């Protein structure tokens, strides 16, 4: 008898969802790879697994990093949250555990254990409407009546019955009256006058440059009021704020800085015109803000 050797397939690597201690990493660059993510968090502690979430070959801009214990997870959040990685400020927070049912479903999908096509529920075929059949019995009866001796041919409008569907029920007089009504000329309604488009006023027609406020555009969406104020720390400023969306409270990418006086404003504009600010590979747009001119009343004009 020949000796037979049994070979066993190597165990599959565990999924990132199976690790209980992991962090969520958001706002990643789309060029970041699993290896780069692993190396960046390896300085914090031992990394079990690092995975970029993708849709096909394209990255979705976020991923997960698994550690051996919860203490390393908390350490990674403290040391890596809001840090610069791949040209972006990333967000790091402890990931919530995934339900066991979802993990099993994903593992089944990856391993290819989905139900074969034969076991799936078969769809019921749609009932097709059969074409309506026209009964020819009535037409044959009318032909027999016309063939009888001494019978005069009657016009179709005077015959009874007619077609099976949509039989004629109105006499010939009504038909002639309907023709005369259709022959009457129709009244032509006058065309409505076309409205002329309103003339749009230029946006900056009623605005003048402010003496103390400047507009700062092309800001990174993660910029805060404090960070905006630090950019102009060498000048004397009164306030600095980033404009946010009222509903979502998310920054819109621009803000305003108010200087102490007009001299400080001119000083800042002259310097930044020669040496523009650059934040996170973005060149900021800085110019004097526009303010609306107050309306002149009749007493003031006099």
From TrEMBL:
SMART domains: RRM. Pfam families: RRM_1 (PF00076). One of its GO terms (molecular function) is mRNA binding. Residues 128-155, 171-209 have a biased composition (Basic and acidic residues). Residues 118-127, 156-167 have a biased composition (Basic residues). InterPro entries: Euk_RNA-bind_prot (IPR050502), Nucleotide-bd_a/b_plait_sf (IPR012677), RBD_domain_sf (IPR035979), RRM_dom (IPR000504). Keywords: RNA-binding. The keyword RNA-binding applies. GO terms for cellular component: nucleus. Residues 109-211 are annotated as: Disordered. Residues 21-97, 212-291 form the RRM domain. The keyword RNA-binding applies. This is RNA-binding domain-containing protein. It comes from Linderina pennispora.
């Amino acid at each position: 008898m020949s000796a037979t050797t049994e070979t066993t397939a190597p165990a599959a690597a565990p999924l990132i969802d199976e690790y209980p201690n992991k962090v969520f990493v958001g706002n990643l660059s789309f060029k970041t790879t699993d290896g780069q993510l692993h190396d960046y968090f390896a300085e914090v502690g031992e990394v079990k697994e690092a995975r970029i979430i993708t849709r096909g070959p394209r990255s979705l801009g976020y991923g997960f990093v698994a550690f051996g214990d919860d203490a390393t997870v908390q350490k990674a959040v403290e040391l890596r949250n809001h840090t610069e990685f791949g040209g972006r400020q990333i967000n790091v927070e402890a990931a919530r555990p995934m339900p066991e049912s979802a993990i099993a479903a994903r593992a089944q999908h990856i391993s290819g254990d989905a139900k074969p096509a034969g076991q799936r529920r078969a769809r019921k075929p749609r009932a097709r409407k059969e074409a309506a059949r026209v009964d020819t019995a009535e037409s044959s009866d009318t032909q027999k009546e016309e063939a009888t001796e001494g019978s005069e041919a009657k016009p179709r409008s005077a015959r009874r019955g007619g077609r099976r569907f949509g039989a004629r029920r109105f006499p010939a007089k009504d038909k002639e009256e309907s023709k005369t009504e259709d022959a009457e000329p129709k009244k032509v309604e006058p065309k409505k006058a076309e409205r002329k488009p309103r003339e749009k006023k230029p946006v900056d027609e009623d605005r003048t440059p402010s003496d103390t406020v400047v507009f700062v555009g092309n800001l990174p969406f993660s910029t805060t009021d404090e960070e905006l104020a630090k950019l102009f720390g060498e000048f004397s400023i009164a306030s600095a704020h980033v404009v946010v969306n009222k509903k979502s409270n998310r920054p819109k990418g621009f803000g305003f800085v108010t200087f102490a006086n007009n001299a400080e404003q001119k000083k800042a504009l002259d310097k930044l015109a020669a040496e523009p600010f650059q934040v996170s590979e973005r060149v900021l747009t800085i110019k004097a803000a526009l303010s609306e001119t107050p309306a002149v009343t009749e007493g003031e004009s006099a």
